[in-house]
Design goal:
Length: about 180
């Protein structure tokens, strides 16, 4: 089952010391993850890649289908961040706010959060810098109930999301979302 692969990957990331993450708040009932990246491209390009090309940079290891090309984001209020499956589909999040080339906000729970009594608000805010690059400010605020509490899952979820942001950045800047290989 793909969700088991997802949980194993989340645990592997939680044990990795090479990935940095920024959980700015956490408690038994929620957490907030924030990251800021500077992407060497105009914000129109970044927004287009974020929404219209999600299937080209999303890591397929963090999916139900195992195929990144099955992802799509309908960037309009009420739109779906969805994934096609062989015999069905997954609505990962719902778009609640769009200001083209500036802000995308979605609500819902990704991966293991979807099966819990939690929800989150994920915001991508894009601003053009003086140098022509894009400053991407990301925030994922998650709240709700889990019998084990949410403190323990905050770091792993944050690290997976940071990896996705870095893949987006590499895809926009180089056309290849995969991390560089070391010889």
């Amino acid at each position: 089952m793909r969700i088991s692969t997802f949980m194993i990957t989340v645990l592997a990331f939680s044990l990795s010391s090479q990935t940095t993450a920024d959980v700015v708040a956490k408690s038994a009932t929620g957490f907030v993850s924030k990251h800021v990246l500077t992407i060497s491209a105009p914000r129109t390009r970044v927004f287009h890649a974020l929404t219209d090309e999600v299937g080209r940079w999303w890591n397929p290891e963090h999916s139900y289908s195992g195929v990144a090309a099955n992802f799509s984001i309908d960037a309009r209020a009420g739109g779906c961040f969805c994934e096609r499956l062989k015999d069905g589909s997954v609505a990962h999040m719902t778009v609640v706010f769009v200001e083209r080339d500036s802000v995308l906000r979605m609500i819902g729970g990704l991966g293991p959060l979807q099966a819990m009594a939690v929800s989150g608000s994920m915001t991508f805010a894009l601003a053009q810098t003086d140098s022509g690059a894009t400053r991407l400010e990301y925030e994922y605020a998650v709240g709700g109930y889990s019998p084990e509490g949410l403190e323990g899952i905050a770091g792993p979820v944050d690290r997976v999301q940071l990896e996705q942001l870095q893949r987006l950045q590499r895809f926009v800047e180089t056309g290849n979302p995969a991390p560089p290989t070391t010889p």
